[in-house]
Design a protein that fits this description.
362 residues, alpha/beta, Rossmann fold, OB fold (Dihydrolipoamide Acetyltransferase, E2P), seven-stranded mixed sheet
Length: 362
């Protein structure tokens, strides 16, 4: 996104247009008016990725318009990124210009910051990293007060930690998260807290169990687990599973069983299609599932997972693609109706939007 595309004065109009689009998508299903959760107008994005563009002897942060790779937009400051990223950018640029070991064949830079004030910088290279780079990276990490990770083909070197620490508050309780380098995290921390609070409220206090698919690092798992008897959560990424297990233990959440299965594999297990060794010790028949919670990728739920969701009294669905959300609801509407829905503006000044729906059995 270019700085020219950022228009705080027009933000309310853009948000109203998104709300109208979501209402149009959900109108065929008799959805109630959406609860709309806005974003800070600036400094809301906790992560950012830049390519580097050489002009003369200097390399600059650069981004490209969609579909374009030859005409860079050179970046000095990035108003949508966190204040911490904006503070780190010139200091990092000065370091790679002053230290040949840092700047040589550096082609991409990634920042990850948190509302809790932690920061991690990933430097990507078209060369192998050596001891000279590591010594320079140690000096850089001390200067920036951030972890530094170097990536080259098939290799990774970590100076500090390979994760950032985050704290998100839901219903007055602080939850602490480890966010690994390279794994998915919600980019807009303020809106993420609003999403968690909405899901927490929509689920309500329950005396039965929750099935969660696509749990990631436990972003939703931690607060939702406090609302139910037990949780069975699934995630396919090893990195995210390890982070989620740490986050559960660190927060003292002990009513969650986490298994490394895809949504499709868990559907097969629940349907008795085949057993999975990773489910050994977990008695699926002892769960009393009342709600399924899903936060799927942009493609939405596959048809078999949709059919699995149909069995539940309640379906709590967070979507990063309302078009596939609408397609999934179309498959579910004969058995479930929309009780609540919400719009979360994770990505101001773009057409992207996140939505949430609570579906209940008719």
């Amino acid at each position: 996104m270019s700085a020219q595309a950022i228009d705080p004065a027009g933000y309310t109009r853009q948000l109203n247009e998104k709300a109208a689009r979501l209402a149009e998508l959900l109108a065929p299903f008799g959805a109630p008016p959406a609860e709309v959760f806005d974003s800070p107008r600036e400094h809301y994005r906790l992560r950012a990725e830049f390519r580097l563009w050489r002009e003369g002897e200097q390399r600059h942060y650069a981004m490209f318009a969609p579909g374009g790779t030859h005409t860079p937009i050179l970046i000095e400051q990035f108003p949508i990124a966190s204040k911490q990223i904006n503070a780190l950018m010139p200091r990092l640029k000065a370091a790679w210009q002053a230290e040949p070991a840092l700047g040589f064949k550096l082609f991409q830079v990634e920042f990850l910051t948190t509302l809790a004030g932690d920061a991690m910088v990933t430097l990507c290279y078209h060369r192998a990293l050596d001891a000279e780079w590591e010594h320079a990276a140690q000096r850089l990490a001390a200067q920036l007060g951030a972890s530094v990770i170097g990536r080259s083909k098939g290799k990774r070197q970590v100076v500090g930690r390979d994760y950032a620490s985050e704290t998100l508050t839901v219903a007055g309780r602080a939850f602490h998260y480890r966010q690994p380098e390279g794994a998915f995290t919600q980019p807009n921390g303020q809106v993420c807290q609003k999403m968690l609070a909405w899901a927490f409220d929509a689920l309500g206090e329950r005396n039965d169990d929750l099935l969660e698919l696509y749990c990631g690092n436990g972003n939703f798992t931690l607060p939702l687990a406090t609302r139910v008897r037990r949780v069975l959560a699934t995630e396919i990424s090893k990195t995210s599973v390890n982070a989620a297990l740490h986050n559960l233990a660190h927060n003292g959440v002990d009513n969650v069983a986490l298994v490394r299965l895809s949504a499709e594999e868990l559907t097969q297990a629940l349907n008795g299609v085949r057993p999975f060794r990773r489910l050994e010790g977990i008695a699926l028949e002892h769960y009393d599932f009342g709600t399924i919670f899903v936060d799927p990728p942009r493609a939405g739920m596959d048809p078999d997972t949709c059919e699995l969701a149909r069995r539940f009294e309640r379906i709590l669905y967070i979507s990063c693609n309302p078009q596939t959300l609408a397609a999934n609801i179309a498959q579910l509407q004969d058995t479930h109706r929309i009780e609540r829905c919400a719009l979360f503006d994770q990505f101001p000044y773009t057409h992207h939007m996140e939505a949430g729906v609570m579906l209940v059995r008719r």
